[in-house]
């Protein structure tokens, strides 16, 4: 068992529960958090006693607020990692590829990269107090892979563009109406509901579930190439003044000033 600082990993009744445990920073993730999440998902994948996985956040304020923007404002990145690389793309792949259903138990704010994590889960159950939103364009970031294209598959183009282009949050009732979550519970009932659903999954044929999960995925797996390209672009963009302005403004609790970056590429004169 690896020593974990940012994530809790528990297995009970054939269900692995993975909890992002950084409530002081709204369960936002650093590179280390992502490494630990990958370890937890791989552990659940390899454990023959586990049939379903629940992903949630510690406390009642946040599921996950995405990347730790203060860390990025301070250092320009998401901190040290095991291999020196920020492995968020690998985490996305593991959530999709693990041959067991993943249930996101959304206990509060699911924002930015945290929102993407629940979108990638097979099922999402939300507390009535949960909030959902994308924040990249406000803090100088974007997920032009699964985080936008697969989101559009789930809720439709207009709604996905609305979430990304306005960076406003929606509540749990709206998320349910949009098909962004499967069900909404009272906050105190969220984990019991998620465990009950996991228990029902655990009573089913694991092989049938595995084939079904990968069959659902196959239809959108080409987005993985798009994701790869998008993360290449994000890596380049994240070193720009424009990206730094977004992160710095968040850390300084002020609105970002993107005015000087507005000049659009000129149409081809040739
Ligand atoms: C999440 C919120 C909507 C919550 O708002 P609320 O009003 O309830 O709470 P506060 O704003 O007062 O927050 C409490 C406390 O937590 C700190 N905090 C919140 N979010 C973060 C965060 N993401 N990083 C660090 N710290 C955070 C906040 O500063 C407060 O601390 P105090 O010390 O002041 O008490 C709201 O907080 C919010 O909108 N948060 C920011 C959301 C956000 O911008 N997330 C990052 C988007 S970018 C991203 O996720 C991302 C994902 C990737 O996969 C990438 C991959 C590769 C490169 C870059 C990536 C990337 O940038």
Task: Sum this structure up briefly.
By secondary structure, this protein is of the alpha/beta class. The protein has helices at residues 31-46, 69-75, 88-97, 113-120, 136-139, 146-155, 157-166, 172-178, 190-202, 206-218, 223-237, 241-251, and strands at 7-12, 15-20, 52-57, 62-64, 102-106, 109-111, 123-127, 131-133, 170-171, 183-185. The chain has one domain: 2-enoyl-CoA Hydratase, Chain A, domain 1.
- The SSE string, one letter per element, is EEHEEHHEEHEEHHHEHEHHHH
What is the H level of CATH, i.e. the homologous superfamily? 2-enoyl-CoA Hydratase, Chain A, domain 1
Question: The CATH topology is what?
Answer: 2-enoyl-CoA Hydratase, Chain A, domain 1
CATH architecture: Alpha-Beta Complex
Q: Would you tell me the structural class of the helices and strands?
A: alpha/beta
How many structural domains can be distinguished in the coordinates?
1
Quick one: how many beta strands?
10
Q: Overall mean pLDDT score?
A: 97
Outline the low-pLDDT stretches: none
Widest beta sheet: strand line-up: 1-2-3-5-7-10
Spatial shape: globular
User: What's the main sheet like?
Assistant: 6 strands, mixed
Small-molecule components bound? ligand LTTK3YTO
Helix proportion range? 40-55%
Span between termini: 61 Å
Multimeric state of these chains?
single chain
Strand composition percent? 15-25%
